[in-house]
Amino acid sequence: MSTPTIGVLALQGDVREHVAALAAAGAAARPVRRPEELEEVDGLVIPGGESTTMSKLAVIFGLLEPLRAFVRSGRPVYGTCAGMIMLADKLLDGRADQETLGGIDMIVRRNAFGRQNESFEAAVEIAGIEGGPVEGVFIRAPWVESVGGGAEVLARHDGHTVAVRQGNVLATSFHPELTGDHRVHALFVGMVRDHLAGGARPARP
Hints:
Helix content: 25-40%
Strand order of the largest sheet: 2-1-3-4-12-11-10
Radius of gyration: 15 Å
Order of helices and strands: EHEHEHHEHEEEEEEEEH
Strand content: 25-35%
Oligomer: single chain
Mean pLDDT: 91
Low-confidence stretches: 200-205
């Protein structure tokens, strides 16, 4: 079985936890901070953090357009929490100057589950993941207001969509890297392996 190389965008957020979870799921993981480092990885994780800050830092470091090109290239991308916001085609409650990468035909509402002191954990059933629900850690988490025809809803919590996939792009509202359960990362590593083997689902144009 191949060992894919997966980058973790290291502008902000829980980078080390994602690197550890990806390694436990069978990938070689490394932080990515410069445009040229994107060319060295087979897939990319965009971690949680603060989405407006992440957007500004991507512009400052010259990463915004290279990241958009990475998504368009069809290489797999997984975003958690703020990463989900970055992968949305449209935002609600975003700053007027806030940039996203796009990649999933969805409308996302920032901080939809509440403020930092309203963070919580909940069991989440995810389509395509066996072994029962995963424990989702929701920290100032977004939810998906609506999805377009190309996007597949994988999970809901309390009636709200919290996990979505479109082609090779995956996003969750919650933080699986904080739980010690690596099944969501294993799902993503499998997506990267499939892409390398030529068996991935087609990416959106």
